[in-house]
Amino acid sequence: MTRKENLLFEIDNLNSVLEKYRSILEKGHLDDVAYLQLNDVLGSVMLALRYYFGEEAYTEHQIIILQRE
To answer: Torsion-angle region of residue 55: left (phi > 0), alpha (psi -120 to 50) or beta?
Structure first.
C-alpha cells in the first residue's frame, strides 16, 4: 500500500466512524466505547499523515523483544 493509499484508507475509515457517531449523538449521547473508537481512529489518521509527509511514523512504534541466548 502506498503512502497515499494508506492515508485515503484511514480517512475513509475516519469518515465512516464519524458518520456513525454523529447520528448517535444527534439522538442522544456518546458512551465510553465511542470515545475509545474515535480516539483510536484519530490516532490512526495522525500516523497516516505523518507517514504520508515523510516521517517514518510506523518504525518509531515497533516493539522489540529481547531474548537471552
So the answer is: beta
Phi-psi region of 54 (alpha: psi -120 to 50; beta: other; left: phi over 0): left
Q: How confident is the model at residue 37 (pLDDT cuts 50, 70, 90)?
A: very high
Residues 6+ apart with CB under 8 A from 16: none
pLDDT the model gives residue 19: 97
Amino acid code (one letter) for 3: R
State the burial class of residue 22 (Cβ atoms within 10 Å of its Cβ: 0-12, 13-18, 19+): exposed
Half-sphere exposure of 16 (CA within 13 A, CB side): 5
**What are the Cα distances from residue 1, in Å, to 19, 47, 48, 49?**
25, 15, 12, 14
How many whole angstroms separate alpha carbon 36 and alpha carbon 34?
Answer: 5
